[in-house]
């Protein structure tokens, strides 16, 4: 089975699927909503108050502090585009089958079909203000110049406080988290294309490789070297449908 290989990363359409072996991942917070499933066994999720939950699969809301303990087992982490939500509980067996199929196919379709069906993905329950949609578009455009909340608010003709409040309410994460997710996605894409971590850091807008590594660890609970330098295979599905593989 393809899942018995060491680690995989598929990236595209605002989503990322990472499969690997994990021990304990100390306190961190994802910048996007995520679905986790243990492939060998169940795992523990510890919230920021120290409460321990035992899961075979679970949904983790973006920007909430937590830690994880997989006890050395393999797991799949599916990071969803900001704003995506679930309509029902995660079924571990259905999700494992979808992960296996996605890795075997290595095509863009599984992002829109397999996981859409396996997770019964639904849109954000709130309609999105056109100004907030425009801010999200500006933040997720790869070649756009970096902009803070004040600049973004001016560009869409709204107050900074309104934009910050409605963005978090309607998209599900703060502006900073949304920006961080797309910067990290851009960095991950470059790393899969063979760029060094130093090159990745500068090209994706981080100050240096140390800055990139620090934010990566804070977002995922592990250093980027754990992901990108240990026998990783992966693919990036570009917006035009082409695949870049490693």
Automatic annotation (TrEMBL):
Report the Pfam families cross-referenced here: HTH_18 (PF12833)
Q: Which InterPro entries match?
A: AraC_XylS_family_regulators, Homeodomain-like_sf, HTH_AraC
Signal peptide coordinates = none
The protein's UniProt keywords, in alphabetical order, are: DNA-binding, Transcription, Transcription regulation
**Superkingdom classification of source:** Bacteria
Q: Does the keyword Oxidoreductase apply?
A: no
All copies of domain HTH araC/xylS-type, residue ranges: 133-230
Per its record, what are the GO molecular function terms? DNA-binding transcription factor activity; sequence-specific DNA binding
Q: What is this protein called?
A: Transcriptional regulator, AraC family
Q: Lineage of the native species? A: Bacteria, Pseudomonadati, Myxococcota, Myxococcia, Myxococcales
């Amino acid at each position: 089975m393809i899942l018995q290989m060491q680690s995989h990363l598929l990236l595209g359409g605002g989503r990322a699927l990472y499969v690997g072996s994990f021990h304990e991942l100390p306190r961190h917070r994802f910048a996007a909503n995520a679905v986790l499933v243990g492939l060998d066994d169940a795992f523990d999720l510890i919230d920021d108050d120290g409460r321990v939950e035992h899961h075979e699969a679970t949904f983790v809301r973006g920007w909430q502090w937590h830690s994880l303990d997989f006890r050395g087992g393999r797991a799949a982490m599916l990071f969803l585009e900001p704003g995506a939500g679930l309509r029902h509980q995660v079924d571990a067996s259905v999700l494992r089958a979808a992960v296996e199929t996605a890795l075997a196919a290595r095509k863009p379709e599984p992002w829109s079909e397999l996981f859409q069906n396996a997770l019964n993905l639904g849109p954000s329950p709130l309609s999105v203000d056109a100004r907030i949609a425009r801010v999200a578009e500006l933040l997720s455009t790869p070649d756009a110049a970096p902009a803070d909340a004040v600049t973004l608010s001016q560009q869409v003709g709204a107050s900074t406080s309104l934009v910050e409040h409605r963005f978090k309410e309607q998209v599900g994460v703060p502006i900073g988290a949304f920006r961080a997710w797309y910067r990290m996605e851009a960095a991950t894409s470059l790393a899969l294309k063979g760029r060094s971590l130093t090159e990745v850091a500068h090209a994706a807008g981080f100050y240096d490789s140390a800055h990139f590594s620090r934010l990566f660890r804070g977002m995922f609970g592990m250093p980027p070297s754990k992901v990108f330098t240990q026998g990783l295979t992966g693919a990036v599905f570009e917006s035009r449908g082409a695949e870049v593989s490693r």
